[in-house]
Design goal:
This protein is an alpha/beta fold. It has helices spanning 2-14, 18-42, 47-59, 79-89, 91-110, 122-144, 153-158, 160-168, 171-190, 202-217, 229-232, 238-242, 247-272, 282-299, 308-316, 323-338, 348-362, 365-374, 376-391, 394-413, 441-449, 469-483; strands at residues 72-73, 305-306, 416-421, 428-436, 457-467, 491-493.
Length: 500
C-alpha cells in the first residue's frame, strides 16, 4: 500500500495539474472536432485533412515552447484563402504552399521577427477578419441550401438574392437550409442553458442534434464524404513543387504566411489576457507554428494557426500546462483512427451553419461604432480592408489595408502647425512647429505665400522636430522669391535639434 501511495505521490509531483489538463483536453477535443471537419469541407478538401491539421496542432505544435495554453489547428480565418488556392492550383499544390509557409515562419522566428507582427495595425487585422467573415458567411449560405457557390467574394454576395429565389422553389434546398438554420439557432441558444448543459460545447451539440434529426426523419441532405485517414494523406510530388515557378502561387504563399502568422500571434496576445500563467514568447511561438505548418505541408494537409475559440475554451476549462493541448491532439488521432465512419453521418448543412456562426463572430460589430466615434481613420482602414477583401481577394485586400495604415501613420507623423504673428509694424513672424515633411508642403507654402510681399519676414524653425530635405529646399526657394521683391532678406532661425 505504501509503495502504491508513493507512486501516486511521485506522479502528482511530476504532473501536479494532470486532472485539470485532462479535463481541459477533452473539452478542447469536443470543440475542435466539428470545427476541424467544417473548415476542411468549406475549404474544398477531404474532411479528414482538417483532422490531420488538428492532430499536428496538438502533437507537434503543442509540444513546442511559445504559448503554453494556446491551441492550434485549421482556422476559419484561412478557409477562403485555402479554397481559392485549391480551386486555382489543385489539391497537390496545397501541400507545397503550406510547407513553404511553415519554412518561412521558421525562418522569421529564427530571425526574431515574431514580435514585429504585434506592430501590425489592429484595424487591418480586424478588417481582414471581417472581410473573411463576410465571404465565409456568403459562401456557406449557398452550402446550407445545397447550392453551388460562385468563385469570387463579390459574386457570392451579389448572387445571394438569386440563390434565395432558387432555394424557395426547391423542397430539398429548403430542407437543407432549415437544417443549417437550426444548427445556428442551437449554437446561439446553447449559451443560455444552465451551466451543466454547457459542459458539452455548443458546436458539438448542434452537429449531434442535426445528425440525429437527419437520421431520424430520413432527410435527403448531403453528408460528409469519408475516404479514410491514410487515403487522404498525400505528400506533394515533383509536379506540385514545379508550381513554385508560378508567380501567383508565390504570392499565395506570402499571403498564407502573413495572415497565418498575424492571426496566431494576435491570438496569443488575446490568450495571455485570459490567464495569469507564463506569457507568450512570440518568436518561439512563430517557430512552433512554422514547425506545425511544415509537417502539415509534408502531409498535404490544411494550414494551421492558433485558434482563439479552442484556446479560450482551453483556458476556461481550467488548463494549466501544454499537456492539455497535446492530449487534445491524441483524442483527435484516436477518433480519426477508430471512428472515421462517424464523419459520414454528419450533414453538410450543419457544418455550414457552424461556419456561418464562426464567420459572424469574425466581424467586429460591437467595436466599429465606438471606433468611428473616437478614431475615424482606424475605422476607415477596417472598413476599406474588409471591402477590398470581398471585392478583390484576400492578399490584395490585406495589402491595401496595410498601405492605407502606413499612409495614415505617415500623415499623422507629419503633424505641423504654422503660426503667423503680425504686430502691424516691423517684420512678420512665422513660427513652424511639429514635423515638416513633404506631405505637408502644400499647407506650408500656402501659408507663407499669403504673407505680405512688401514686409520683411522672420521664419522661426526652432520648434520643428523634423525637417526633411524636400521641405528645406522648398523653404529656401520661397525665401529667395520673397527676398527678390526688394524687401529685407528673410531671416531664418534654424531648428534647435541637430540632424533635422
Amino acid at each position: 500500500m505504501s509503495a502504491g501511495m508513493s507512486l501516486i505521490s511521485s506522479r502528482h509531483r511530476r504532473f501536479p495539474h494532470w486532472r485539470q489538463d485532462l479535463t481541459a483536453s477533452l473539452v478542447v477535443f469536443l470543440v475542435a472536432l466539428p470545427l476541424c471537419v467544417g473548415v476542411a469541407v468549406a475549404s474544398g478538401v477531404p474532411a479528414e485533412l482538417g483532422l490531420v491539421t488538428g492532430i499536428v496542432g496538438g502533437l507537434v505544435t503543442g509540444f513546442l515552447p511559445g504559448s503554453s495554453l494556446q491551441v492550434s489547428g485549421p482556422a476559419a480565418g484561412l478557409t477562403v484563402l485555402v479554397f481559392g488556392a485549391v480551386d486555382q492550383y489543385g489539391l497537390p499544390a496545397l501541400g507545397v504552399i503550406v510547407l513553404a509557409t511553415g519554412l518561412a515562419q521558421l525562418v522569421m522566428g529564427a530571425l526574431k521577427l515574431g514580435r514585429w507582427f504585434r506592430a501590425i495595425s489592429l484595424s487591418v487585422v480586424e478588417g481582414m477578419l471581417a472581410g473573411i467573415g463576410l465571404v465565409l458567411i456568403a459562401g456557406q449560405l449557398y452550402s446550407a441550401a445545397g447550392l453551388q457557390a460562385p468563385a469570387s467574394g463579390i459574386d457570392k454576395l451579389t448572387g445571394l438574392p438569386g440563390a434565395a429565389a432558387d432555394a424557395l422553389g426547391s423542397t430539398g434546398a429548403l430542407t437543407s437550409l432549415a437544417l443549417g438554420a437550426g444548427t445556428v439557432a442551437v449554437m446561439v441558444l446553447w449559451k443560455r442553458l444552465p451551466g451543466r448543459a454547457q459542459t458539452v460545447p455548443g458546436a458539438l451539440a448542434a452537429v449531434g442534434l442535426a445528425t440525429a434529426v437527419t437520421a431520424a426523419f430520413g432527410l435527403s441532405v448531403a453528408t460528409v464524404e469519408v475516404s479514410g485517414l491514410l487515403e487522404v494523406i498525400q505528400p506533394p510530388g515533383a509536379d506540385a513543387f514545379g508550381e513554385l515557378a508560378n508567380v501567383g502561387l508565390l504570392g499565395t504563399i506570402v499571403a498564407f504566411t502573413l495572415i497565418a502568422s498575424a492571426e496566431s500571434l494576435f491570438s496569443a496576445a488575446a490568450v495571455d489576457r485570459l490567464h495569469s500563467g507564463p506569457r507568450t514568447q512570440y518568436d518561439k511561438e512563430l517557430m512552433a507554428q512554422g514547425a506545425g505548418n511544415t509537417v502539415c505541408g509534408v502531409l498535404g494537409a490544411l494550414p494551421m494557426t492558433a485558434v482563439i475559440v479552442r484556446s479560450s475554451a482551453n483556458v476556461a476549462a481550467g488548463a494549466r500546462t501544454k499537456a492539455s493541448r497535446v492530449l487534445h491532439g491524441v483524442w483527435l488521432l484516436l477518433f480519426a483512427a477508430l471512428l472515421p465512419s462517424v464523419l459520414g453521418l454528419i450533414p453538410l448543412p450543419a457544418l455550414a451553419g457552424i461556419l456561418v456562426h464562426a464567420g459572424w463572430k469574425l466581424i467586429p460589430f460591437r467595436s466599429i461604432l465606438p471606433l468611428w466615434r473616437d478614431h475615424r481613420g482606424e475605422a476607415l482602414i477596417l472598413v476599406v480592408t474588409a471591402v477590398s477583401i470581398v471585392a478583390v481577394n484576400m492578399f490584395e485586400g490585406v495589402l491595401i489595408g496595410l498601405a492605407l495604415s502606413v499612409v495614415k501613420t505617415a500623415w499623422e507623423a507629419s503633424h505641423l502647425r504654422l503660426e503667423i504673428v503680425d504686430k502691424g509694424a516691423g517684420p512678420v513672424q512665422a513660427h513652424l512647429t511639429g514635423n515638416a515633411t513633404f506631405l505637408r508642403l502644400p499647407k506650408i507654402l500656402e501659408g507663407l505665400e499669403a504673407l505680405p510681399q512688401d514686409r520683411p519676414v522672420e521664419l522661426d524653425l526652432s520648434g520643428l522636430h523634423h525637417l526633411d530635405h524636400a521641405c528645406r529646399t522648398a523653404l529656401e526657394n520661397w525665401a529667395e522669391r520673397h527676398s527678390a521683391t526688394g524687401t529685407d532678406p528673410v531671416k531664418v532661425t534654424e531648428p534647435e535639434k541637430a540632424g533635422v
